[in-house]
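User: Can you write out an input/output pair for a complex, sequences first and structure second?

Assistant: Here is one pair. Inputs:
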Amino acid sequence: MDLRPSAEQEQLVDAFSALYAKESPPERVRAAEPGGFDKALWERVLEMGVVAMAVAEDAGGWGASLLDLALMAEQQGRWLASAPIIEAQVAARLLARVGAEDVLAGALAGERLVTFALHPARGGVARLVPAAAVADEAVVLDGDRLVLVQLGDNRATVENLGSMPVADVTVDGAVLASGRAAAAALDGALDDWLVLTAAALVGIGARALEIGVAYVKERRAWGVPIGSFQAISHRLADSATALDGARLLTWEAAWAAAEEPARSAELAAMAFAFAYESARDVTHRSLHFHGGYGFMMEYDIQLYYRRARAWANVFAEPGAVFRRVADRRYGAV
Amino acid sequence: MDFRLGERSDAFRAEAREFLAEAMTPELEERIYRTGVSHDEDFTRRLRDRGWLAPGWPVEWGGQGRDALEILAFGEEMARAEVPSYAVGTTMMVSRIIQVAGTEDQQRAILPQALRGEIVIVLGFSEPESGSDVAAAQTRAVRDGDEWVINGQKMFTTNAHLADYVFLLTRTNPDAPKHKGLTMFLVPMKQPGVEVQAVFTLSGERTNITYYSDVRVPDAWRIGGVDEGWRVMTKSLQDEHSGGFASHSERLLGHVESWARSTVGDDGRPRIEDPDVRQRLARVATETEVGRLLLRRSAWMSHEGIVPEAEGPMGKLFTSEAMERHAQDMAEMVGPDGLRSYFEPTAPEGGKIEHALRFSLGTTIYGGTSEIQRNIIAQRGLGLPKPS
C-alpha cells in the first residue's frame, strides 16, 4: 500500500497549482462569470498539454494515467479554474476510443475544442452539455448513434447557478459510431468524467474547508474565536473527515482504472456521489459560518458553494448516481 | 500509489479467513451472544497456537513480527467474523503499555503469560461520574508504606468477572490539577475488597461495575511514575482511537444483500430489483468503502512511522457513525421482518439486522465518543481553538 503520489505526480500537481495561482485567482474567476470561460487561461493550459496528456501514446497523446489527471483535476477544483479541461480530456479519450482520428488530431493540436454530452439526446436535443457554450464540437449519443455535432448554430447557451459554459445542443452531424459500441464508448467516457469531476469536487471542498476554518479562527463573538464553539468546530471536523474519505475514494477509483478494472466503474460512481455530498455539505457549512458575510457576493465562499452543486448536478442528483453504483455492483435490471 | 495491501497481507488474510470459517461455528456465535461475553478460552488457545494472539509482536515475545498492514488485514477479517476477542484486545493493549512503560520485573511477570493467553487484563478507566472526561477520575489510591490502598468504583469494566488484573486509573494527588494527580496500577482482581457486578447492555454484551474497597496493591504494581498516569493513559487511548467498524458495516451489507436477493416484494420481483433498495444498498456500500479506506490510511501511516493523530479519530468517528446510520436504514428498509430478534428462528439472516441496530449504538460511545473524536480532529487536524 502506498498512498503518496509519485515524485512526477507531485511535480505535475505543483506545476498546475502554480499556474492557477497566477492565472486563476478569485478576481479572474469572477471576471469570467457568468460565461465561465477564461480564454487566456485555456490557452495557457493547452500549452501545458492538458488535452494531449489525456490520450494514450498509441493514439498520439502522452499517455497520462487517469490518476495523474485526477490529481490535476483536484487543483482545478481548488482554484475554480474557468476552463473546460475535464470535458476536453474525456472527449479526446472518447474520440480515441471510437477511432475518430481526424477529429482527435485537431483536438490534440489545439485547433478545435471538443466536448461531449453526459446524457443521450432526447427529442433531438442534448441538454446542458458541459463546455458546449465555448467548444467547437460536441460528441452526443442520439439513439444508438454517436454523433459529432458542429456547435456553431446548434447550441443555445444557458445561464446557470455555477457559471458553467453549458448549452442545450441540437443534434445534427456526422456519425462516429453506432450500435452497442456507441453506448459503450459513452459509458466509458462517463466513468472517466465521474472520477475527474469527483477529484475537482474534492478540490472545491478542500479549499472551502480551508476558507471556513480560517474565517472561524479569526472571527470573534462573545470574546472568543467562533471556531472554539463545538456547534461550529464539530461540523468542520465532520467535513474534514468526509473530504479525506472522498479524496481516498477518488484516488482509489482513478487507480483502479488501470489496476483493478473489474471494480473501477463501480468505484467511479461511488467516488462521484460521495465527493459531491462532501463538497455540497462543506461549502454550505463554511458559507453559513461566515454569517451575513457568507451571503455577500464579495466573499469567495459563494463561488465554491455554487460550483460544488453545479459541477455535479449537471450530471445527476446523488440518488441517481447511487443507482448507477448499484447497476455496476449488482448488474442492471 | 497502490491500494493493494500487498502479498504478505493478502496471504495472511486468506489464512485467517480459512481458519475463521472453521473456528467461528454457529454454536460459538450463539454462545457469545447468549452469555454476552466476547471471550472464549478454547478460541483464545487456538489463536495462541497459531501465534495469532499478538501477531504484530516480535518473535522473541511469542509474536510473529508482522507489519502494520498485515495486522490490518488480519484485524479486518477478525472484525468481520465478529470473533470473541475483546478480552484478548484489552490484554494486549495493556501488555503493550507495560512493554513501553513498565519495569523489567513487571514485564517478566506479565508479558509471557499474557502472550500465552493465560491471563486476562481489563480496563478500569470510566467511573459513574466520568466517562469522556476520563481525567476527572475520583478512585483514590493512598500510599501506605510499600503498598497503596485503593477505594472507588469503575464503570464498564468489561470482562472483569473473568479477569486476572485490571489496569486501573486512580487519583493519587487530589490537590494537583486534574491531569497531574493520576497514577496507573495493575491491580490483581482475585483478592478481597474487589467486587464485580454484572451490567447488561443493549447489544447483549455483558459488562460490569467494579467496586474497590480498601484494596491493597504493592507499589511494584504501579505502571509508570506516581502522578504520571495521564502520560501512560494517553498512549493507550491513542491505540483505542485507531480502531473502527467498517468490517461490521461490510458484514451487515452482506446480510442485507443476501436478504434482497432472496426476498420477493409485493410486485412479485426480488427486492434487489427495486430502485429504492438498490439506492440504499449502494449508499451503504459506498460509505463502507470510504470507512475502510480511512482505517487503512491510519494503518498505512503507522506502517510509515507517522502517528495518525487526527486520521485515527477520523476513521473511528466515520465508521462508527456510518455503522449507526447503516443499521438504522437497513432495518427500516427490511421493514417489519427486520424487527425479528437475533437467533430468533423466523428472523431473516438469523436476526443480524436487528442485532446490528442494537450493536451499532455502542460504537459511537466506547473507545472515545464521537464528540471526543471531533474535538481531536478539530484541534489537531484543523488547528481550531479549544472550547472555552
